[in-house]
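User: Here's a protein and a ligand (iron/sulfur cluster). What would the complex look like?
Assistant: Let me lay out the input and then the predicted complex.
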Amino acid sequence: MSAENAICTVCGRKPAFFFRLYSGEKLCKKCFSKSIEEKVRATIAKYQMLKYDDKIAVAVSGGKDSISLLHVLAKLERNHPKASLVAVTVDEGIKGYRDEALKIAVENCKKLGITHHMVSFRKLYGFTLDEIVNRLKKKGKGELTPCAYCGVLRRKALNIAARKVKVNKLATAHTLDDETQTILLNIFHGDVLRIAREKPVTDEAHPKLVKKVKPFCEIPEKETALYAYIKEIEFQSAPCPYASEALRNDIRVMLNRMEEKHAGTKFTIFKSIERIRPAFEETAKKEGLRECIECGEPSAEETCKTCQILKQLS
Ligand code: SF4
Ligand code: ZN
Ligand code: ZN
């Protein structure tokens, strides 16, 4: 990663501070951050993620990825006066963790002049994540990890929030690392057909589901952190106390090791999947979504996953 004594290969003037191994570029700070903004712009165009007049909500957790995405999109959006941008944060109710992240999200929005909305598990579901985890533990029912519950509940919360603030696109900060980890995780779980669904732009599977886009899907996580650092963006660095999805962590470590030894591994995995996804899509049954009989939200089953979790609590 060090680019000692080298000159930026893009501007040819300033000292380089980052060596992008997979491309061979040595970049100064300015050219590096420009390259991230340009890459996001190109990714949005490549996957036709956004239109000039879209109403966009950015899912902001307060971590480096989502806060960096908010800053990059705010900058790109200035060229599209007809588009609008808001931020949405889900307060899962994780004591000693989410409060700080929320504060950071609010402060960044204020700096950027972006309206911030918050939606909480407690308000939507009647329980915080802490309460859900404790209750399930007491009942001996918590067979899944807290992250598995959190993921289901947060996906739904974000969709409800996006509808409430009347946007037609929801941008999430999934990076190249998240995407490649998820691909391998699905393979390791034997759930390969999920790969058909988890793409850079989601399908319009149900009128109540807001389209999700991932403008960072081709940006390595290391570089979103570096972008935040160069731009002096404040973000939350403390990890979530529940962050211990064992298999994902093992995959993360393995991928990082592979990337170190064989630069470009993550891109190769991502691009391979992009190429074979149409074949997956042909094999995968199109998800016929209906409305949950309990809450009326889009669901693959009669009762949605969220309502199934909440039923276990009572
Ligand atoms: Fe939720 Fe897990 Fe993320 Fe914590 S690490 S916020 S529990 S998904
Ligand atoms: Zn430069
Ligand atoms: Zn439901």
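Summary: Residues 47-313 form a domain with the Rossmann fold fold (CATH 3.40.50.620).
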